[in-house]
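sorry for the late reply, my laptop died twice this morning and i had to redo everyting from scratch. anyway the thing you sent over, i finally got around to it. pasting the sequence first so we're on the same page, its 175 residues, then the predicted structure underneath. double check i copied it right bc i was rushing
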Amino acid sequence: MNENVMELAEGDWIIHTRYGLGQVMCMEEKELLGERKNYYNVKTEIFNYWLSISSLNSGRVRHVARSSDFSKALDIIASEPAALDENFHNRLQSINDLLAENTIFSKAQLIRDINARNVSKDIHANEKGILETLKGQFVNELALSCQISENDARDKMQEALKKSSANVKPKKPAF
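ok and here's the structure:
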């Protein structure tokens, strides 16, 4: 049997690339398009979704990062931001590539770099949405993993963002 096969149990916390933090509530067999498959019912802060057991090793789902990983992730956020491509389509492709990695470190890098771009230039609504989603997911995972309040987790992230954008030249006001 493959040692890299992800296994989940009721009560496990997971991170989905799109939906963020969720808890496995149960496993059920469901019929979809005439085919019966086993699914996990995963509850997020906002909604429940069904995760096919056959898709567990797709890279879109991972276990919650260890608390020790968050020290490095916060260091990444606090570090000097990397410039994002000026071409929107290239920039969005790079963002999507990092999102697909689905690691706490790739999320930290995106939070840092998109935030820095937002400080220095107007960003597209898609990028604003991605940034806010990533921040929320990061805070939720940090709070759960390190067993701290969401407010404390948000403060840690904001402090790191403040450090990373300290040398970023702010955009000129529109008016």
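The chain has a mean pLDDT of 92.
thats about all i looked at so far, will dig more tmrw
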